[in-house]
Specification:
Strand order of the largest sheet: 11-12-13-14-29-23-22-17-20
Low-confidence stretches: none
Shape: globular
Number of helices: 3
CATH topology: Beta-galactosidase, Chain A, domain 5
Distance between the termini: 31 Å
Helix content: under 10%
Largest sheet: 9 strands, antiparallel
């Protein structure tokens, strides 16, 4: 049904900022902005017919400029954690910003990476294509990058995200989306009563700085086992060192039988709204994060977001895969860029 465009203010350096809203024949709406490629709204009707906005975010675009929770953002070029904020390519060491636990790197940079920049935008029939360039050694990363992210709202009520990033020299690329979802509505409170099932028999244990140990561990017999649908809060209440390390779920789940094809990674259910969200990815992992460090953020429509009121399912190569030889490495060059697709598919179930 097309894309409507609305000017919403100025960026940190005076750039024009716009909100792009896609609407399909079902009345479902997806809104994104050209600052940080951020998903700001997703309006979807639950089993009771009530339309809910299931995305946590801000009312004022300026709040995204300093937000360190990455609400709705495309994160990159290197998402998640890199141990010691360094990695080596062909004998050369590259240093990233130290911004996590005093020695590691998280999401490339706190305020300077792609999630904090203004992207160029072009609208399609029911899609928006965002593009941005990154210069060689900007953010500490080698390679002149050309990044393209396409958001599409399908008639099947899917948010489809297509990534296409090229480089002119070897570099690490591991892009993701960091949207926080609450399937009963962004302002409805805790997500601990939502249920989730993962297409993953294994996860990555981490140390007390959230760096993976290198082990790929079976979930069986642990609170990490969501091979059958279980309520998040039920498993969170269990005494388990991994949950203590990360103050709750903040772990990579390893997709079963990963082969680079698009597969369902996780499915979330909300009993009250009846809304179901499937997450599909062609990458080997998905980070399950339940907003353990969100607290007091003033969101849309007067909402205040506190701990565990939204969950993230971030498709990715494994955290610290730039350094860990046990993991598939997201190393790309002029002959092969980073291409990936993530889909968030929405539906409803009756009682």
């Amino acid at each position: 049904m097309g894309v409507t465009v609305k000017e919403i203010g100025k960026g940190p350096n005076g750039e024009n900022l716009f909100k792009y809203t896609m609407k399909n024949e079902n009345g479902t709406e997806l809104s994104v902005i050209n600052f940080g490629c951020i998903i700001t709204n997703f309006l979807f009707a639950g089993k009771d017919g009530k339309v809910r906005d299931v995305i946590l975010g801000y009312e004022d675009v300026k709040d995204y400029f300093t937000d360190d929770k990455c609400f709705g953002a495309i994160v990159g070029p290197v998402a998640n954690r890199t141990a010691n904020a360094t990695f080596v390519i062909d004998g050369t060491e590259y240093k990233l910003e130290v911004n996590d636990n005093g020695r590691n790197n998280l999401h490339t940079a706190r305020l300077g990476s792609l999630q904090k920049r203004v992207w160029d935008a072009e609208t399609g029939d029911n899609s928006v294509t965002f593009t941005i360039d990154k210069a060689d050694m900007d953010l500490g990363l080698p390679g002149n990058l050309k990044a393209k992210v396409v958001y599409t709202l399908t008639e099947e009520d899917e948010i489809k995200i297509d990534y296409d990033v090229t480089t002119d020299k070897k570099t690490i690329i591991n892009m993701t989306n960091h949207t926080y979802f609450n399937l009963n509505g962004h302002d409805s409170g805790s997500i601990l009563n939502e249920s989730i099932v993962f297409n993953a028999d294994s996860f990555l244990p981490v140390d007390d700085e959230s760096i993976p140990s290198g082990e790929i561990k079976k979930v069986a017999g642990t609170p990490m086992d969501f091979t059958e649908a279980k309520k998040i809060g039920e498993m969170l209440d269990m005494n388990y060192e991994q949950l203590a390390f990360t103050n709750g779920f903040d772990h990579n789940y390893c997709i079963n039988d990963w082969d680079g094809s698009l597969k369902v990674a996780a499915t979330v259910f909300d009993d009250e709204s009846g809304i179901v969200m499937e997450t599909l990815t062609d990458l080997p992992g998905v980070q399950f994060y339940i907003g353990n460090y969100v607290g007091g953020e003033k969101g849309k429509n007067g909402a205040v977001y506190n701990q565990r009121q939204g969950l993230c399912l971030e498709s990715q190569y494994f955290p610290n895969s730039a350094n860990d030889p046990a993991f598939a490495r997201p190393l790309f060059d002029e002959n092969k860029g980073f291409k990936s697709t993530t889909v968030y598919r929405f539906s409803t179930i009756a009682d």
